[in-house]
C-alpha cells in the first residue's frame, strides 16, 4: 500500500477489516436482484405505454432535433427610378472601369460585396402585366420596355414598330426584311434536319429582338437568344418580354456559360462578330459549344459578297479576302461546307475523328487543346486559341446519333455516365419523381400550365426533370446548374432542353422583370454556406415579374427564414406540404406584388 508521502507500509492489513466489507457486498447484490424482480414484473404493463411515448418524444441520436432557422423581419427600401433596368453584373455605369479591347467591358463584372444593392428594383412608370403568350410574340406594352431608339433605328428593317401603347413585331430583321418566316423556310430547305426533329436546340448570337428564335418555336426548335447588355437596344429584354428564351452574354475573352458539344445549331445573322479576327478565337468558341454534326449558319458579311459588298461600305476585294479567310479557318477547325444559297451559308461540324487527329501534328493552327483544359469548364473561363476535340468514346452524342425530338427527351443520354451516380435508371427515377411533383404543384398553383406562366426558371436543376414534366405546357424553362454542383448540364442539352451555368452568389445575366415563375429545390440547403440568403432572394425579386410566382421547395429548417425575408420583399406567401407530406421538407408558394415607385405617376 502506498501512502500520500510515497512511502510503503511494511506491515500487512489486519484481517478483521475484510469481513464487514464482504458482508456488505453480499447484501447489496441481493437487494439489487430484488429491485430487478420488481422492475421485470412491471415491464409488460408499462411497455405498451412508456416505450411508445419515448419513441415519439426522444429523437434518434443519428437525427438530432434542430430548431428552424429564425431571422428577424426586415423591410427593403425601393431603389431609385434610374435602377428600373438594373443588371448588376453588366451595369453600364461600371463600363468605364474595364477595357474596350474585344469588348471586355460588356462581359460579366459583378460589384464587390460592399457595393451590392439592398433595395427593390421598381418597374417603369406605367408598367402593366405582360401580354400573354402566344399573342406576346407579336406585341408588347411600350411602357414595359420604353426604348424608342431601336424603333427609330430599325424601322426600315421591320424589327419592330411602335403603334399606340404597344410595340409590334412584324418579324423582320437586317437579313430578312421580307419576314423571318420566309428566311427560316429557305434555311429549312438547306438543312432538312430542321424539319424532322433532328435539330432541337439552337443558339442565336447577336439575336436582335429574337424573331428568329421566336419563329423556330413553332417548328419544334428551342433557341437561346444571346446578346450583350446595351444602353438603347435592350435586345434580350425585348426577347423575354415577348416570351422567347434569351440571356445576356457576349463572345469576348471568356467562354459562354454552356457546356461543350451542346447546341445542335448556331446562327449569326449579321451579328457583327469579327469571326476572322484574333486568330478565329470566336469561331473556336462556337465550335466548342456546337455538338459534332451540328450546323453553323451565317447570313450577312462576307456571305454573298459578290452581290452585297456595295451596301457594306467596303470593296469586293476586301470581302472576297475575308470570305476566303473565313473558309480557311472553318476548314482548319473541322467544319465543312454543307449548303449555300443567296445570303445563307451553312457549315457542319465534323464527327470524323480523323480530321481532329491531324490537329495534333506540329505547327498546326489552331492546335488541339491539351487535356488539362476541361471542355465543359465555362464559368469565368478564358477563351483559348485551340480546338476542343470531341471525346472519341462519346459516339452517341453526335447529332446524327441522338434520337429525334421528342423521343430524345425520354432517352438517357450517353453523357449521364459522367455524372456521379448517373445512369439510365437514375434518370427514369428522376423523371417519375418530377411528374408527381409537377402534378402537386399545379394543385397548389393553378396558373401553372396556363398561359399566365410563360417564362420559367428552374434555379438548380439536376437532369431537367421539372422542365421535362411540364414540357407540354405553354411555357419554356431555363435550366440552371450551379457552377459548384455536379456537371449535369450536358445531360440537359442532350435531352433537348436548354440551360446555363450560374453561381447564385452573383446576379443572373438577365434584365429585371423577365420571369413568370422561379422554381428552386433545396437551393439554400446546398448553397447557404457560400451565398447570403438575403441577396439570393433580392436577386429573385429583381428578375421576377410583378404578379409572378416563386415555388420554393426547401428544408423545414430554412422555410420560416425564407418567408420572413419574402415578407420584406412585399411577396405574399403560403406554406404547403410536399406531395408526400414529409415533415423535413416544405413548399413555400409566393407571389410578387405589383407596386410602383413612390415618385411614379402610376401609383
TrEMBL record:
Membrane topology per record: Single-pass type II membrane protein
Cell compartment(s), UniProt: Endomembrane system; Membrane
SUPFAM superfamilies, per the entry: S-adenosyl-L-methionine-dependent methyltransferases
Annotated transmembrane regions: 21-39
Database matches in InterPro entries: Put_SAM_MeTrfase (IPR004159), SAM-dependent_MTases_sf (IPR029063)
Keywords, alphabetical: Glycoprotein, Membrane, Methyltransferase, Signal-anchor, Transferase, Transmembrane, Transmembrane helix
Top-level lineage group: Eukaryota
The enzyme's E.C. designation: 2.1.1.-
Cytoplasm listed as a keyword: no
Alphabetical list of Pfam families matching this protein: Methyltransf_29
A GO term from the CC aspect: endosome
GO BP annotations listed: methylation
MF-aspect GO terms: methyltransferase activity
Family: Belongs to the methyltransferase superfamily.
Name of the protein this chain belongs to: Methyltransferase
Amino acid at each position: 500500500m502506498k501512502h500520500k508521502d510515497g512511502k510503503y507500509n511494511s506491515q500487512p492489513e489486519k484481517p478483521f477489516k475484510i469481513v464487514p466489507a464482504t458482508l456488505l457486498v453480499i447484501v447489496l447484490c441481493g437487494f439489487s436482484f430484488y429491485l430487478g424482480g420488481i422492475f421485470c414484473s412491471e415491464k409488460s404493463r408499462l411497455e405498451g405505454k412508456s416505450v411508445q411515448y419515448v419513441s415519439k418524444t426522444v429523437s434518434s441520436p443519428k437525427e438530432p432535433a434542430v430548431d428552424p432557422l429564425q431571422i428577424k423581419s426586415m423591410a427593403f427600401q425601393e431603389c431609385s427610378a434610374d435602377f428600373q433596368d438594373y443588371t448588376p453584373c453588366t451595369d453600364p455605369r461600371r463600363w468605364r472601369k474595364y477595357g474596350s479591347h474585344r469588348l471586355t467591358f460588356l462581359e460579366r463584372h459583378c460589384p464587390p460585396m460592399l457595393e451590392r444593392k439592398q433595395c427593390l428594383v421598381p418597374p417603369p412608370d406605367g408598367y402593366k402585366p405582360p401580354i400573354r403568350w402566344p399573342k406576346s410574340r407579336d406585341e408588347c406594352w411600350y411602357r414595359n420596355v420604353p426604348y424608342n431608339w431601336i424603333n427609330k433605328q430599325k424601322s426600315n428593317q421591320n424589327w419592330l414598330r411602335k403603334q399606340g401603347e404597344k410595340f409590334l413585331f412584324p418579324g423582320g430583321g437586317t437579313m430578312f426584311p421580307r419576314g423571318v418566316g420566309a428566311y427560316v423556310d429557305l434555311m429549312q430547305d438547306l438543312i432538312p434536319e430542321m424539319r424532322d426533329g433532328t435539330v432541337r436546340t439552337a443558339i442565336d448570337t447577336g439575336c436582335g429582338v429574337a424573331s428568329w428564335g421566336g419563329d423556330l418555336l413553332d417548328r419544334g426548335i428551342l433557341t437561346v437568344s444571346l446578346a450583350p447588355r446595351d444602353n438603347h437596344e435592350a435586345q434580350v429584354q425585348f426577347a423575354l418580354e415577348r416570351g422567347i428564351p434569351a440571356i445576356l452574354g457576349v463572345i469576348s475573352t471568356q467562354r459562354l456559360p454552356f457546356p461543350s458539344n451542346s447546341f445542335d445549331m448556331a446562327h449569326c445573322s449579321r451579328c457583327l462578330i469579327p469571326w476572322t479576327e484574333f486568330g478565329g478565337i470566336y469561331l473556336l468558341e462556337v465550335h466548342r459549344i456546337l455538338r459534332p454534326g451540328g450546323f453553323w449558319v451565317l447570313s450577312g458579311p462576307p456571305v454573298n459578297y459578290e452581290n452585297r459588298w456595295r451596301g457594306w461600305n467596303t470593296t469586293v476585294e476586301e470581302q472576297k479576302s475575308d470570305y476566303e479567310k473565313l473558309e480557311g479557318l472553318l476548314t482548319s477547325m473541322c467544319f465543312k461546307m454543307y449548303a449555300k444559297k443567296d445570303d445563307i451559308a451553312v457549315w457542319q461540324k465534323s464527327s470524323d475523328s480523323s480530321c481532329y487527329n491531324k490537329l495534333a501534328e506540329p505547327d498546326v493552327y489552331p492546335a488541339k487543346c491539351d487535356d488539362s483544359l476541361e471542355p465543359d469548364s465555362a464559368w469565368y473561363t478564358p477563351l483559348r486559341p485551340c480546338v476542343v476535340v470531341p471525346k472519341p468514346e462519346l459516339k452517341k452524342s453526335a447529332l446524327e446519333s441522338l434520337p429525334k425530338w421528342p423521343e430524345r427527351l425520354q432517352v438517357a443520354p450517353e453523357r449521364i455516365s459522367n455524372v456521379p451516380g448517373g445512369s439510365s435508371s437514375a434518370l427514369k427515377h428522376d423523371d417519375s419523381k418530377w411528374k408527381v411533383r409537377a402534378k402537386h404543384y399545379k394543385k397548389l398553383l393553378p396558373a401553372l400550365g396556363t398561359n399566365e406562366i410563360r417564362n420559367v426558371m428552374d434555379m438548380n436543376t439536376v437532369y431537367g426533370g421539372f422542365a421535362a414534366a411540364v414540357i407540354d405546357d405553354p411555357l419554356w424553362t431555363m435550366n440552371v446548374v450551379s457552377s459548384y454542383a455536379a456537371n449535369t448540364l450536358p445531360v440537359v442539352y442532350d435531352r433537348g432542353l436548354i440551360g446555363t451555368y450560374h453561381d447564385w452568389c452573383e446576379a443572373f445575366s438577365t434584365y429585371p422583370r423577365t420571369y413568370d415563375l422561379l422554381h428552386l429545390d433545396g437551393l439554400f440547403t446546398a448553397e447557404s454556406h457560400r451565398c447570403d440568403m438575403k441577396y439570393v432572394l433580392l436577386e429573385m425579386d429583381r428578375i421576377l415579374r410583378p404578379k409572378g410566382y416563386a415555388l420554393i421547395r426547401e428544408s423545414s429548417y430554412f422555410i420560416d427564414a425564407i418567408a420572413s425575408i419574402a415578407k420584406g420583399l412585399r411577396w405574399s406567401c403560403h406554406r404547403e406540404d410536399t406531395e408526400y407530406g414529409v415533415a423535413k421538407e416544405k413548399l413555400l408558394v409566393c407571389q410578387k406584388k405589383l407596386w410602383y415607385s413612390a415618385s411614379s405617376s402610376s401609383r
